[in-house]
Amino acid sequence: MIHKFALALALALVPGFAQAQGFGLAGLLSSGNKQDLPPILLSAGMPLAEAPLRLKSGTYYEIEIEADGSQELGLAGPEFFRAIWIDEIVIEGLEIRPLGLDSVEFDEAGVMEIGFVAIKPGRYDLRVPGSTGETQRLEVVIE
Fold it and tell me: What is the pLDDT of residues 98-134, one digit of tens each?
């Protein structure tokens, strides 16, 4: 575990090492290490996503979370949010760089984009708070 963290840190902070590993001068944040994920839709009674998310530790991801405004809905996953490093959250052109998250909530329709690096391997859940249905849960696997 420590070895993987040390590698991720070296890739992010030491440009020469990152370049030698094929990530370019920007390390983990280089465009060659970025992947877009399918969006998560928050809509009353609808599934969050079509399939579980499979992520690779050390890869930079961007995901859109969209609420259709059909109901005030949130998405919670404190264990998942602690297994990633959040680069930024973008809401209507405003960029937020938080130290961490437990959950997000939409009071009305809107779109939020989260850019992050998957760090800690494991199985995690993102779910609509207070829900018990499997369609209101999204499994995320970091390998």
Answer: 998 999 999 999 999 999 999 999 999 999 998 888 8
Q: What is the 3-state secondary structure of the chain?
A: CHHHHHHHHHHHHCHHHHHHCCCCCCHHHCHHHEEECCCEEECCCCCCCCCCEEECCCCEEEEEEEECCCCCEEEECHHHHCCEEEEEEEECCEEECCCCCCEEEECCCEEEEEEEEECCCEEEEEECCCCCCHHHEEEEEEC
Kindly report, residue by residue over 81-94, the tens digit of the pLDDT: 999 999 999 999 99
Structural tokens at position 39: 């969006």
CA–CA dist 138, 75 (Å, integer): 10
Q: What distance in Å separates the CA atoms of residue 80 and residue 44, rounded to the nearest whole number?
A: 23
Output the CA torsion 73→78→80→81 (10° steps).
90
**pTM for this model (two decimals):** 0.78
- Minimal CA–CA distance to 62: which of 5, 6, 12, 111? 111
